[in-house]
Amino acid sequence: MTEPADAAVRRAIPPVICYPTDTLPAPDMGLYARAREGMDKTGEVLVPPREARCFHVPAGHFFRIVSVEGPQVGDLNLWSARDLSERFYSGKTRALHGTHLTTGERMWSSFPHLRPMATITDDTLGWYGIDAFGGSVHDVIGTRCDPYTHRLLSGGDYHHCCHSNLTRALAAETGLALSEAELHVHDVLNVFMCTGFTRDTGQYFMKASPVRPGDHLEFFAEIDLLGALSACPGGDCGAEHSSDAAPCHPLLVETYRPAPGALDGWSPPARNGYPRSHGA
């Protein structure tokens, strides 16, 4: 198409942040730091390669996703342990915090709840920042690898995509039929995954994760949580996903209880106060 005479002027219009966060309720990172001191490990769940597992975290406790054995990315789903309809809302989290998450940022829940589900309290990959390609870690832009897109692009079926892994794990944990459990699986936090958008075509890209054994991403559970983590069949996602070709490794989920009295005065966040009248 013919470029208009004022094209440069239009492109030069400065951007405006959609959701300024000056008034966003901020986490008390000092409180969380004190609560982390002397916390006790209460359990762990090992997630096998190309599989998913569920785990529970009470409100006021911590959980860590830990790299073990080799570079591996994971797809994380979170639900309220009391109500599966309240689940992680990656789109709103992205709108509030940006495309990638790190320490001090939160995973927000779906409408009509819209409250913090978990706050990131430690990130050993926080040093990575944004690289020369525009890539960063722990994204909320990728949806999750799934068998439907795999069928669309390849014509074949692959059952160890993260979507299917999470579906099987949730069904096993809750007793729901696979068809019911699948409806609760949602867009993920791509833990340890290094991603961005190409500058020329705007395409979503992935590159080999910088994660190494011993690295972790740690969270504070703001509400009672049911989580599910899939060890992605792409391994470190440096080449492909949704196949048996990439080297894959397990991931470890550890849960921790703060010392008694460390959270005195803290309480779980209330659900969003909007009355749901919608102007009617």
Summary keywords:
single chain; 280 residues; alpha+beta; six-stranded antiparallel sheet; 6 helices; 29% strand
Number of helices: 6
Bulk shape: globular
Give the uncertain stretches in residue-range form: none
Number of strands: 13
How far is the N terminus from the C terminus? Answer: 44 Å
Structural class category: alpha+beta
Overall pLDDT: 96
Main sheet record: 7 strands, antiparallel
Give helix and strand order, one letter per element, not per position. HHEEEEEHEEEHHHEEEEE
Whole-angstrom Rg? 20 Å
Number of domains: 1
Percent helix range: 10-25%
- How much β-strand is present in the residues? 25-35%
Give an overview in words.
This protein has 280 residues and is of the alpha+beta class. It has one domain (43-257). 17% of the residues lie in helices and 29% in strands. It contains six helices and 13 strands. Strands 2, 4, 5, 8, 9, 10 and 12 form a seven-stranded antiparallel β-sheet that branches. A six-stranded antiparallel β-sheet has the order 1-13-3-11-7-6. The protein starts with 6 loop residues before the first helix and ends in a 23-residue tail after the last strand. The mean pLDDT is 96.
What's the gist of this structure?
With 280 residues, the protein is of the alpha+beta class. It has helices at 7-11, 29-36, 90-97, 147-154, 162-174, 178-182; strands at residues 40-47, 52-57, 62-67, 74-80, 83-87, 106-108, 116-123, 136-139, 189-197, 204-207, 216-221, 225-231, 251-257. It has one domain.
